[in-house]
Prior knowledge:
Layout lengths: L1 E4 L6 H14 L4 E4 L10 H9 L4 E3 L3 H11 L12 H8 L4 H7 L4 H7 L5 H8 L4 H8 L4 E3 L3 E4 L13 H5 L3 H9 L4 H5 L7 E4 L16 E3 L2 E3 L12 E5 L5 E4 L5 E4 L3
Parallel strand pairs: 1-2, 2-3, 5-6, 6-8
Antiparallel strand pairs: 1-9, 4-5, 7-8, 9-10, 10-11
Amino acid sequence: MRWIIGDIHGMLRPLQGLVGAISRRDHMAHLIFVGDYVNRGPDSKRVIDLLLSLPRATFLRGNHDDVFDLLLHGDSYITHPGAKNPETAFTWFMQHGLAETLASYGADWAEMEAAMHHPSPDHIKKFVAPVPQSHRRFIRGLKAVYETDEFFVAHGYWDPDEKDSPSLASQIANEPNLRYRLLWGRFTDAQIQSTKYWRRTGYFGHTPVLNYPAGVGLTPVAGPKIVLLDTASALSSEGMLSAICAETGMAIQADRAGKVVDLDVE
């Protein structure tokens, strides 16, 4: 069966707990990750190490991963106005957990803080130098969307008034604005509850569910043809990492210590 997993953000223990719990329930599980593997949490390097060891998995690109791609390779899937080059991206995302990611690879905290507001290309090159080639390839190869006849998975947003056929991939191929919104856009509460123009169910991460009235309990938020899976694994001490099975609707969460609970998503 296929399991969609929310934003990890460098949180290794919840990931270990969730992957283990899914494996015990479904030995042939195909894991589909919505993106945002890095930043905020302390273990981005070990998170990617674990992800690279998984036998059946699809990895999608999150906006944080896209910024990391920019730092690693000098360009990225989307050009964000606030992150037009590695230097601006570094300054911006140091406020959103980038230091934790680079520190997990061995970068020096004091040097990063000293360079925060006026980083040079040499600073960036030094901070990312320890990132191994396998991790660089992983980040570079992240997909934008996963699609089947029954559902699709993307990181951030797909307009409820846009068609989802013949495919999202074909629509975003030559549309930079759609690609931008796919990674960076956010649903309003009204859009979550609205009727969708989609024929399939869409699964998303990106926006923590605590931003919505229905997300008070840090469980996935569901509406007509939509499920949001960013349950604030690294943003809150109460945060959880969530997964849902596309075939059965079974949902599983792991807390910061890796403790697993089952829950219903309505």
